[in-house]
Amino acid sequence: MHTQSVDRWQHDHIFGQDQQRVGEKRTLIVIAVTATMMVVAITTGIMFGSMALLADGLHMGSHAVALLIALIAYIYARRHASDERFSFGTGKVNALAGFTGAVLLAVFAILMAWESVDRLLDPVPIAFNSAILVAVVGLAVNGGCALILDAGHSHDHDHHHDHNLRSAYLHVIADALTSVLAIGALLTGKYVGWNWMDPLMGMVGATLVARWSVGLLRTSAGVLLDHQAPADLRAGITKALEAEDADRVADLHVWSIGPGIWAAELVVVTDAPKPAEHYKGLLPDELHLVHVSVEVHRCPGPD
């Protein structure tokens, strides 16, 4: 057999993963903003002896690390997209980074809850004016970062599947939520005297962040463990292939190999077998199947 006759059935497994994603640029901007505010908060906290400012700076630093992991994942996936060691490209690096970010979110939630309980049992004096200022600045910064990460999502096909971007977004939202709850609690403590509202709001925030973490852990782990694609996607494949009465899909496996892209392996049983390319051609482009393997069998009997 000539080499040229084999080449037509061969292809790469990059699937566009060598292209820079929108999430990479957004994450880089957010890291720059967060790192700058971290340095400012830590520096002013040391200069003015403010524990609130220093704590907020260290808090921002923990999320900057999580955002840095997301950025490294984007760069690694793009630069190693053509590495043949990855069977279906580097798309799952995205899910791995999202899973790691979700774990960090869970740790952050545990630390929030622990600190809140400790403050509730052993209250400490609160410098309300300084703490409120820090919380307001933090809210403004994190709100802006959230808009940067979320901007244009409605125009991106893969944003629902980009677990890496989702992780970065949730870290920023967690910071913003902390600031909102802190502002409400601190204002209540300053003007009503309910100092216990501060640790109570901390526990509320920890609960919400924990829920976000669990959701992201489930979705990203599903990709890493090759969970079947959503039912509507599998139904779309079956409908397209069973358009002719003689054809039936006997076995179907569809799994994610990157943000918004899927691979499929399927078995078609039919009275009138056709080449595998015929069945691949029946699959609509909007299903975003980038790697399809088809096995065709002739039906052995009238049933």
Walk me through this protein's architecture.
By secondary structure, the chain is mainly α. It has two domains: 22-224, Cation efflux protein transmembrane domain (Alpha-lytic protease prodomain-like, Up-down Bundle); 231-298, Alpha-Beta Plaits (2-Layer Sandwich). The protein contains nine helices and three strands. The chain has a three-stranded mixed β-sheet. The longest helix is centred in the middle third of the chain and has 31 residues, at 91-121. The two termini are 39 Å apart. The model is unreliable at 152-159 (pLDDT under 50).
Which features characterize this protein?
303 residues; mainly alpha; Alpha-lytic protease prodomain-like; Alpha-Beta Plaits; 2 domains; three-stranded mixed β-sheet; 3 strands; elongated
* Total domain units: 2
DSSP E strands, number: 3
Q: Largest beta sheet, briefly?
A: 3 strands, mixed
Tell me the strand percentage band: 5-15%
Quaternary organization: single chain
- Largest beta sheet: what is the strand line-up? 1-2-3
Which structural class should the secondary elements be placed in?
mainly alpha
Gyration radius from CA atoms, angstroms: 25 Å
Query: Architecture of the largest domain, according to CATH?
Result: Up-down Bundle
Shape: elongated
Q: How many H/I helices?
A: 9
Helical content, roughly? 55-70%
Low-confidence stretches: 152-159
Report the end-to-end length measured between terminal Cα atoms: 39 Å
